[in-house]
Amino acid sequence: MKRLLLLGGHGFIGSQVRARLELHPEFAVSVAPPSSILDLTTASDAAWDALILDNQPDVIVNCAGRTTGNAEQLLEANALLPARLLQVLTRLGRTPWLVHLGSGAEYGSSKHGTALSERAHPHPLSTYGLSKLAGTQLLDLAFASGQAQGSVLRVFNPLGAGQSEATLPGRAAAGLRAARLERRTQLTFGPLGSVRDYLDVRDVARAVVLVAGLNSAPTLLNVGSGRPTRSRDLVEALADIAGYRGVLAETAPGSSRSEAVPWQQANIRRMRALGWEPCYSQADALRELWRGSAPAHLRPLEGPLTSGTPVSSSILQTAAAYPTVSPRTPKERTALKEQPAS
């Protein structure tokens, strides 16, 4: 049995990894305290030493990090935290197998219609991507020098329950919930022409657990679906699941980050060679996203839809129910495009 220490096990991806590990009795799992109790970016050397020495891990999985915040916060969580981990392990003379979560944002954009392999030169176009790349490069140097052993998993765009509203899918779910509640006939987004590689967060967890159980693996692995999806198609599919028949307008100001990266798709041949394959469909992931976003009790719609004003946060927090409407007709629905996987 391998002793495994999970860092960041209370976040969006980390909680799914924790749940997946429960299905694998070959691991004796310890989960680091949440950041509200032990903030690994500011923890003392003594606290770090205690975390390692008390758990004696054979494997460390690092799901800790930040997707939002200012440059200093992102650098601390995504680059300095793995640097601290390496420093502690070196000081204690420990070389557990490390599995660290990187990000597809490290690559930046790719040529339209092409899939990014691990050999692609990274050129991140956001502060988040830069901070994640810094963490990956620190670990890559440690792996190459023999200071540490393990693999970085570059995760593309995970989907699922509990997704942050800082992401397009999370923001769309919150907007659809509010539009249903207020019986609004239109929901407004920025431009939705960008293409991304979305996959179910449970498939990310499966990939993490698989690599955690290995004794050797490539030091860099892409984790994606291998399929490109236009953002408009994703939002329309989620609207269908939500039963929203209003207009999805694209008249809000666009995101500079999305405009800078019009196309991103993962090449996942390395992960497939290790025996991993996505097993959940995008529809599965969107249903989980909606279930995690919407109240369990739905009530039939009473009265017609009317256009409304912008949604207030208090409505989102206090609403106990919202009306149900019929899904779009096939002519109104834009199905998700099934592209060949890479």
UniProtKB/TrEMBL annotation:
Q: Which InterPro entries match?
A: Epimerase_deHydtase, NAD(P)-bd_dom_sf
Q: Where is this region: Disordered?
A: 320-342
* Pfam families (UniProt xref): Epimerase (PF01370)
Q: Where is the NAD-dependent epimerase/dehydratase domain?
A: 5-224
Q: PANTHER family per the record? A: DTDP-D-GLUCOSE 4,6-DEHYDRATASE-RELATED
> Into which family does the record put it?
Belongs to the NAD(P)-dependent epimerase/dehydratase family.
The name on file for this protein is Reductase
Give the organism the record lists: Deinococcus ruber
